[in-house]
Every structure is written in C-alpha cells, then in structure tokens.
Amino acid sequence: MLREVIWTILVMLFYVDLVMFIFLLLKKGVMKYIRNKKRQIRKTYENEFLRFITQGGDKLSIEPGSYLEKKVLQALIIDYNSFISGSNQTLLLEKIGKESMINKVERYLKSTNRWKNKTGTYLAGEYDLKKLEPLLLKQLYTSDNELFFITARSLIKINNKTYLKEILRKSAEQSWMSKNNTLSLLELIEGDIEEILLEIMETEDMFLQVIALEESGKRHYQKSVGWIEKMSQSPEKELRIAALKASDRLGNTGESSYLARLMSLKNDPEWEVRAFLAKFLKKVNSDQAVNILMEFMRDENWYVRHNAAESLFYLDEKGHAALKALLHAEDPFASDAARAVLQREALYKETTG
C-alpha cells in the first residue's frame, strides 16, 4: 500500500515537472519569437523615426497597428526622448496613445529600481502626464537628492508654479539642491512669480532669500529694489553678493539711495563682494563709478582688479581714459590689468579692421 502511494506521488511529480518543462520551453520559444519580431519592427521603424525627430516636419509615415508595434514605438520614444521636441512629442503620443505612455511611465514610477524610477519621473514631466501628479507629489519627500530634483522639475513642467513654494520649502529644509540647481528650476517657470518671491524674501531662511533675490533681479522685478538695498547691508556675505548679482541683472535704476547703498560696499572686507560690485559698476556711467573702479584696480585680489578693468572698458570714453592713465601707475597690479584690457581692444580692432 505504501509503495503504491509513493509511486503515485512520484508519477504525479514527474508529470508536474514535465508540464513545467513544456511550459518553460514554450515560453522561451514565444519570448524568442517576440524579441525577434520586435527587432524586425524596430529595424523597420528606426530610420523613419530618426528622420522625423532630427529633420522635423508634421508627418510620420509610421502607423503602428498591433500592440507589439505600439510597444516598439514606445521604446523608441523613451530611448530617444532627449532628442524629441515638444511638437514631435505630441504627434508621437497620438501614435501610441497617451494612456499607453501613462501606464508605462506609471510602472517606472512605482518600480523599486532607482534608474527606472528616475526615468519615469523625468518622462512624466517631459510628456506632461498630469495624471501622475499624485505620485510625483509623494516623491517630494524622498531622501534621494537626485530624485528630488527630477521630481521638482517634472512638477514644474506639468503645473508651472503651482507647487513652487512647497518645492522651495522642502529644498531648504533638507538642503537637497544647490543654489544653481534651484535657479535652473525657476528658469522653467513661465509667467509672473513676483509675489511668491517676495513672500520667500520675508522668511528667515538665508538660502531662500538668496534664491528669491537673484531671481527677482533676473526677472527685472522693480519691487526687488527695496530688498536689494536692504540686503546689501546685511552682515551675511552671501546676501550682500546676492544683492549685487540681482542689481547687475536689474541694472542702474537711477535711484540715488539704491546706488548709494551699493557703492557703500566699496570697502567691504570680503573680496567676492568687491568683485561683484566692480562688475555691476559697468552699468553706472558716472564719475563716482569710475573713481571706485580705479581704486579697485589697485585691489589686492586679482579677480577684483580683473572685473574693474573689464567694467572700465565698458564705460567708453571715461573708462578708456582711466585705463590709459593707469598704464603709468606706480602700482604694477593696476598697470598690468589696464594694459591687458587695452591690448585686447587693440588686437580686436586690428583683426576686425
């Protein structure tokens, strides 16, 4: 009796193994067939696809009919995404169906594979997949610096300024983004963000104040003048530099108190502050500006002298006269800096002649 039971079990196991073997063999064969079929479709599609994304135009002769053909076109879109312009993206999404792309990107977003997760996050922004916004919002709480940046970028691409304050707040809390990365995100935002920047300026966070100040100057917001005046007198070097960077973008507003506050930084103990003041003064065509720049030509720091010489060069006759006078200065630093700029001008005139 026991022997029969054992034989029955062994026979059943044999049949189970046989069925599994046949299943795996069939699966392997089917997968090989699908891979070969995909390879053939890709070979057929790729040249036309590359022509379309590189040469432009509003027509694409590829017409995917089957599920497999759409998957191949989808793979091409993901592989060559960085070379696809906005108008072409729209046409390609119509070919494969936006819902199909959403499903693919959603799987990437939910993947435990970091590379796929970051790729999906990036694609969600590139293809304006608003349906995936809730998943992106959850990712703002990630501990991965790079993923946070890509997530913030995609949220801005999809919703413009909607989540800007939240992105900046999280960035400041965790120190997840450099100043340059943060400013690069702000460049993506279209429209007016003056009120948001002014609100950020009211915070006590120096990182956010620097961001808001520089961006306000870059966007030529006139309300930033008051903040530039105030922050130019800050005890924090970073805020004084940010004020000068903002003023360099904003230019000479002609307001006397504004110029007076900035020019008061000529004796600042930090060479970076003096260097940025020297750069700004090329936009102030006045005797006082020329005098400060001539003082800077004798500065102990090379970068300050370099910026001063460049700014004098931009001040036309007044500046050029000052540079020529400095050729005979007793200070070798000043004469060398003046000579370098004037020689460059002479060389330019000779070559363009």
Task: Characterize the structure shown.
Keywords: Membrane, Transmembrane, Transmembrane helix. Pfam families: HEAT_2. GO terms for molecular function: deoxyhypusine monooxygenase activity. By secondary structure, this protein is mostly helical. Among the domains are: 196-267, Leucine-rich Repeat Variant, CATH 1.25.10; 281-353, Alpha Horseshoe (Leucine-rich Repeat Variant). The chain is 73% helix and 0% strand. It has 19 helices and no strands. Helix 2 (67-79) runs antiparallel to helix 3 (86-96) and helix 17 (302-314) crosses helix 19 (332-352).
Write a concise keyword list for the protein shown above:
ARM-like; 353 residues; single chain; Leucine-rich Repeat Variant; transmembrane
For this entry, what is the oligomeric state of its chains?
Answer: single chain
Report low-confidence residues grouped into runs of 5 or more.
Answer: none
Which of globular, elongated, flat, extended, rod-shaped describes the shape?
elongated
Overall structural class, as computed from helix and strand content, comes to mainly alpha
Indicate the radius of gyration in whole angstroms.
31 Å
Order of helices and strands: HHHHHHHHHHHHHHHHHHH
> Per DSSP, what share of the residues sits in E-state strands of 2 or more residues?
under 5%
Keywords: Membrane, Transmembrane, Transmembrane helix
InterPro entries: ARM-like (IPR011989), ARM-type_fold (IPR016024), PBS_lyase_HEAT (IPR004155)
Transmembrane segments: 6-26
Protein name: HEAT repeat-containing protein
Topology:
Blueprint: H1 2-55, H2 67-79, H3 86-96, H4 98-109, H5 114-126, H6 133-138, H7 145-159, H8 164-174, H9 179-186, H10 194-201, H11 206-218, H12 224-231, H13 237-250, H14 256-263, H15 271-280, H16 287-296, H17 302-314, H18 316-326, H19 332-352
Pfam family, one: HEAT_2
InterPro entries: ARM-like (IPR011989), ARM-type_fold (IPR016024), PBS_lyase_HEAT (IPR004155)
GO molecular function, one term: deoxyhypusine monooxygenase activity
